[in-house]
Structure formats: structure tokens, C-alpha cells
Amino acid sequence: xxxxxxxxxxxxxxxxxxxxxxxxxxxxxxxxxxxxxxxxxxxxxxxxxxxxxxxxxxxxxxxxxxxxxxxxxxxxxxxxxxxxxxxxxxxxxxxxxxxxxxxxxxxxxxxxxxxxxxxxxxxxxxxxxxxxxxxxxxxxxxxxxxxxxxxxxxxxxxxxxxxxxxxxxxxxxxxxx
Length: 177
Known about the structure:
The protein is an alpha+beta fold. The protein is built from six helices and seven strands. It has helices at 5-15, 25-34, 116-131, 133-139, 145-157, 163-176, and strands spanning 41-49, 55-61, 64-71, 75-82, 86-93, 97-104, 107-115. It has a seven-stranded antiparallel beta sheet with strand order 4-3-2-1-7-6-5, sandwiched between helices. Strand 2 (55-61) and strand 3 form a beta hairpin. The longest helix is centred in the C-terminal third of the chain and has 16 residues, at 116-131. It is elongated. 20% of the residues are buried.
């Protein structure tokens, strides 16, 4: 059995030098169901929803910005915004913490209680992504032969490929190794 998607996400966060607190664990555990298999995290911050004061995480990926609120009593709330719909993102700093405002169409998503440095970095990464999305797309690593073999296996499992088609494609990939 391979590594779980949650382990992959935790590794991604570690590589980005993001260490979520104990309070974000419920939201982090929901990410494997929220993110697509090949969706990469650009940055993640945690804070509080200004409206209901719930602890939330805000995730910027290579496709969208996702707001995740996993509260015990109210289940899971996930809102996602494609970069093309975001008109602006800004942060304001107070003494130790900061708030982030994301303007989407005629709505504003407000998060406060974010670490000052994290808020600045999150906004910077989202702005960079909005300004140069193609850089992130090109920076995506090519699928490895192993990844392609895994995909082939799934296609066969799901009945998309016949046994013969699967073996033919598998041989081509193995020849590349």
C-alpha cells in the first residue's frame, strides 16, 4: 500500500515550512477529500473566520484558494475561489496578528488571527500566482513513469482500458525506464 494522500499533504506542508497548530488538525485531515490528486499546495495559513470566530484554514493551491472550516457542531464548510474570480487580496497587521481580506466578485472573505508573517507571505504568494499563473503550471513536475503506471492501473481497474490495452501501454512505459 502506498502512502496516503494525507501523508503527501503533510510532506508538502513540511517542504513549504508550514507547521499547522493542533487547532488546524481537523481541517488538515479534510484536505485529501478536498484537493484533487495532482493539486499542489502553494501556501496555507490558519486563522479565525471574522463572522463566526471559528478556527479555519485558508489554502492556496496551484488552481484555487480554498477556505476550510471544520467545526464540530456544524460539519464541514468548504468554499473555493478560482484565481480568475479574485479581484484583490490584502492583509492588515495589528500588534502580533494580522487579518486577510479576499475580494471575490461582490463578496469579501475575511480571516483574522493570522500570524503577521504568514499573512504577508500568503498574500504575496497568491498575488504572484494571480500575476503569473503560467509559471506555476510550467513548474509542475512532469508525471514520472511510476505515476503514469499508477494511472494506467486505475484506468484498467475502472474498466476504461482492456487488459490488452493496459499491457501494451505498460510495456511502452517500462521501456522508458
